[in-house]
Amino acid sequence: MFFKKINNLIFVTLLLIVSISYAQQTAKYVFLFIGDGMGDNQIYATELYKASMTGEHIYEPLSFSQFPVHSFMTTYSANSLTTDSSASGSAMATGEKTNNHWVSLDPVHKTKQETIAEKAKRAGYKVGILSSVTIDHATPASFYAHQESRGDYHEIALQLPLSNFDFFAGGGVHDLGVKSDKNSVSTQLGKYGYTYITTEKGIKDLKKGDSKIVAVNPGTYSGKEYYWEIDNRSESIPLSYFTKKGIELLDNDKGFFMMVEGGKIDWALHSNDLASSIMETIAFDEAIKEAVKFYKEHKEETIIIVTADHETGGLSLGSNTSKGLKLNLLKNQKISAQEFERKLKVLKEQERKISFDEVLDSVKVNFGLGGQLKDLELTKAEKKWLYEAYENEFIEMKEVNPDRDYLDHSADKPFTLRVITILSEKAGIAWGTEGHTAMKVPVKVIGAGQEYFRSTIDNTDVAKIIMQLMQLPK
Questions:
Q1: Residues 178-221: tens digit of each pLDDT
Q2: How many whole angstroms separate alpha carbon 333 and alpha carbon 464?
Q3: CATH number for region 2-313+434-470
Q4: What string of DSSP letters covers 26-59?
Q5: What's the whole-model pTM score?
Q6: Strand-pair category, 311-312 with 436-437
Q7: C-alpha span between 438 and 423 (Å, rounded)
Q8: Which phi and psi (to 5°) does residue 70 adopt?
Q9: Confidence class of residue 91 from pLDDT cuts 50, 70 and 90?
Q10: Domain residues of the chain, as ranges?
């Protein structure tokens, strides 16, 4: 409560000062981009990696790094200095703190905290919620659902059609169910007039005027989250396309609010898989570019806010064991950690003995480790560490599920994550954790009302400023 009181006092003072100078500032079109887990070092690592791939080390910032306003944001929740996605997402959505694992509920009274998306819809704006993970996951859920547990996906998804929002897109829902079950998500979507689209043609055929749409990428895993960008699956529709389509569907005279989450940035960081995170961040930036195109045609009425819910991984661009930062080595990783585990599982299912050398050959092909490049040679200690995991998984046949929850960690790293760790060390990067940190996250803004973001803010201030700009009721 102490944090909350101090935070509110600071915000009210800041808002009063800024409001005197920018009393008439409003925004008709509001984009909120949330790079889940994306700290400042994750952004900079992506930019340095891109520079290293040019051959001439030409540094070019990501599109949102070129925005005129750069600041930082605190992220603590009501019950922890280190937030989770649902608590921070809820804070940005409602302007109020809640507990970790809760979704837009008051932490004391358990009453609903109305979100900016709900207020915008009630005020006549159109609303879109997009994500590269499932739309019943923590961050997107924070904008339309109210639940004590972020893991109660079924109950969260049942609240989706009650929102009356115009466009949900990207990932699907965990448990769609069947129309013959009156309590299924599928039935409830139909009851409230929603169309659930899962084909490329159906998605591309959507046109201005279409509403109450749930458009699901045909390129998803069984859990309905996106395939990894690094795996380059041709059946995937990029987040940038859904953003462009969302603009087409939502554009109207009153205006709109759109939240777009790059959710798999965080999932990669939980595995300390920087190469995969970089590819997800680049895809996230491509989505932001679509908003920038729209902004250029509506500069006086549009604001684009890019931030994160928290930092994941405690990424350090440098380590005690390295001989300098060599992010270019990450180009040798051709596959995500999840897909490599899938390859290992296929190997284990063969009715023959799989040798350690055969597994190392696969490591060489997919990560470059143990190859001819001097910087990627495997030491005796590294081979020994990998062999221990090989014994666990190929001799003792310990099961490692490629589709396990991305938060499922153990002290004894499986083979794939040991490979990722070794590549990180050779690239000169270090990790503080496989979880979240309490570090401030970057905020980058362009457009009408950008002045409100010039100083460090709290995550609750995002909603408060948006409400001010959209002239929504408090």
A1: 999 999 999 999 999 999 999 999 999 999 999 999 999 999 99
A2: 42
A3: 3.40.720.10
A4: --SEEEEEEETT--HHHHHHHHHHHHHTTSS---
A5: 0.93
A6: antiparallel
A7: 26
A8: -130, 125
A9: very high
A10: 2-313+434-470, 335-427
